[in-house]
Amino acid sequence: MSRPLRLALGNANTGEKMTLKVAARAPFSPSEKRQLDHFLRDWRQNEIQEIDGAVLQALLRICEDVAPEGGALNVRITSGYRSRKTNDLLRRMGKKAARNSLHMQARAIDFSLPDVPMKTLSRVARQVCPGGVGTYSTFVHVDSGPQRSWSA
What we know:
By secondary structure, this protein is α/β, with parallel strands linked by helices. It has one domain: 2-Layer Sandwich (Muramoyl-pentapeptide Carboxypeptidase, domain 2), CATH 3.30.1380. Helix 2 packs across helix 4. The longest helix has 14 residues.
C-alpha cells in the first residue's frame, strides 16, 4: 500500500530546492510534473525535457521503501536530463558518462538520500527499480531502460 511522502529535493548543482507531497504510486499532477521537469533539467544548457514517468516512479518507490515513519525524506539530485552537448562535455572531462546515456532521453536520474547509507540505498534500488541501477560512491543512478545493475 502506498503511503504519503514528503520529499525535500535539493539540486546539488544549482542549489535549487523543491518540496513534493505525494503518494509514491500516484500520478503527478500536471503542475508537479512541470516543476519536476524544470528541476531535473540540463542546468548547463538550461534545456528542459519531459522526464519519463517510469523513472520518476522508480525514484518514488525507492523513497517510499526507505522513508522513516511520517514519510519525510531529503533527496539530493545530482543529474536528471542531460543534452548531448552536456553529455559529451562530461565525457571529455573524464566523467563516467555513457556515450548513449539514458540521461539524454530524460530516462535516468542520479541521486542520493543523505539520511540513508549508500549501501542501503543501492540494495533497495536494485530490489524495486525495474530498469537499470548503477551504484557510485556518492550517488545511485536509476533509469527506465532494460533491467541491469553495476557498480563504479
